[in-house]
Write a structure and sequence with these properties.
By secondary structure, this protein is α/β, with parallel strands linked by helices. Helices cover about 25% and strands about 30% of the residues. The protein binds nicotinamide-adenine-dinucleotide. Nicotinamide-adenine-dinucleotide binds next to α6, β11 and β22. Pfam families: Pyr_redox_2, Reductase_C.
Length: about 400
């Protein structure tokens, strides 16, 4: 009977083992995770969980009984320190575990601020793991002063939670605008205005020069424009790096993450990768997607391929973010767009449609699930949308699906 070992018990690892059993794999499965918790959802960490509106148990993807009932050997709080691809073993502490097939779902690590500029002071938090958010929770109190470094999703979602909790928020984004990595200026403008309405001070084109501490605890910050702030805590949302250390030590090929083919197989035929840590071929390029939907879809395809399906992974990217009372839903990837068409609805409802030539490639929809749904279905079907119809708030979008 063969043994599949999965390293990394996050969304991708948990989805992968579930799919193996669903598809009838009867061999042994071992799922190894460095964190002590059952596999859990990360998205609520910077939203409802940080806000104190979601209990720990609701974060768990599946109850513990799922793993026992499905005969998955779950090794939590254990870190793999090495892979030997020739011997087909992984090392955990003093133990050496043999595998027939191995999957790497090692995720990604948050970038931290260097200790030389105060990144190691108490009160400086990253937001990636449950433990990080549990550490930060007590700081998020009415009247506290927070500096948020980075205007990506982590920074903005944390800013929204903090502002809602009565924290005085200053957010610095070193690029010209927030969300520059992922969205058009229209979307950045929308969220800048939204945050200002809630009193968060968003400063763009400004980075952090250094943090200032007293007795090992952060008390202030000096920004690159020379301004100084008193702060009680700092949230660092300056991006993530794929966790490739084990793969690198094992001699696997890397290329912006662990390099896989369209099936999710790495440069070693018995080793697979999925989720944040894996880069894969997509529409003539090589990409890596940092998102839950990708972690689920890709790991499910990899599970099928580990069982011999030989199926290409075709990503259909989508993302979401919650900030205050606004739900942002994104369909597609906007890379290479040359035009953005705005569809304005009532109040805070708006959507931005990205085109590359005549082709619709992505939609950002704010509180507009219909625009998102229509956009997503069009993009996935390889269809476009007449910009005149899109821009007309009175025009029904649904007929676009039949065009
Ligand atoms: N709703 C969602 O989809 C969601 C929510 C949270 C996190 N995430 C994902 O988690 C990952 C991490 O999120 P993130 O927001 O940290 O990453 P990010 O890469 O999206 O954004 C980081 C931002 O920090 C800025 N930055 C970097 N160094 C800086 C500095 N020294 N000073 C000021 N600004 C600086 C960058 O210009 C960038 O805008 C991403 O993959 C993100 O997509 C997604």
């Amino acid at each position: 009977m063969s043994h599949i070992v999965v390293i990394g018990a996050g969304q991708a690892g948990a989805s992968l083992v579930a799919r193996l059993r669903k598809d009838g794999f009867e061999g042994d499965i071992t799922l190894i995770g460095a964190e002590p918790h059952l596999p859990y959802q990360r998205p609520p960490l910077s939203k409802a969980y940080l806000l104190g509106e979601m209990e720990l148990e609701r974060l768990f993807l599946r109850p513990e009984s799922f793993y026992t009932d499905n005969n998955v050997s779950l090794r939590l709080g254990q870190r793999v320190t090495g892979i030997d691809p020739q011997a087909k073993t992984v090392t955990v502490g003093d133990e050496v575990i043999s595998y027939d097939e191995l999957a790497l779902t090692t995720g990604s690590d948050p970038r931290r601020l260097p200790a030389a500029i105060g990144g190691d002071l108490d009160g400086v938090h990253v937001v990636r793991d449950l433990a990080h958010v549990d550490d930060m929770g007590p700081y998020v109190a009415e009247g506290a002063r927070a500096l948020i470094v980075g205007g990506g999703y982590i920074g903005l979602e944390a800013a929204a939670v903090c502002a809602k909790r009565g924290v005085k928020v200053t957010l610095v984004e070193m690029a010209d605008r927030i969300l520059q990595r992922v969205a058009a200026p229209e979307t950045s403008d929308y969220f800048r205005t939204l945050h200002s309405e809630y009193g968060a001070d968003i400063r763009e084109g400004v980075g952090l020069d250094r943090l200032v501490g007293d007795n090992g605890k952060v008390t202030g910050a000096v920004l690159t424009d020379g301004s100084q702030l008193d702060v009680d805590f700092v949230v660092v949302g300056v991006g993530i790096a794929p966790s490739t250390k084990l793969a690198e030590m094992a001699g696997l090929e890397l290329d912006n993450g662990i390099k896989t083919d369209a099936h999710g197989r790495t440069s070693d035929p018995s080793i697979w990768a999925a989720g944040d840590c894996a880069s894969f071929p997509h529409a003539g390029a090589r990409i890596r997607l940092e998102s839950v939907p990708n972690a689920i879809d890709q790991s499910e395809v990899v599970a099928q391929n580990m069982l011999g399906a030989a199926k290409d992974y075709v990503a259909t990217p989508w993302f979401w973010s919650d900030q205050y009372d606004v739900k942002l839903q994104i369909a597609g990837l906007n890379t290479g767009y040359d035009r953005v068409v705005t569809r304005k609805g009532e109040g805070q409802t708006v959507s931005f449609w990205y085109y590359k030539g005549d082709r619709l490639i992505a939609v950002d929809a704010m509180n507009d699930p219909r625009a998102y749904m229509v956009g997503k279905r069009l993009i996935e079907a390889g269809k476009t949308a007449d910009p005149v119809v899109v821009a007309d708030p009175d025009a029904d979008l649904k007929p676009l699906l039949k065009a």
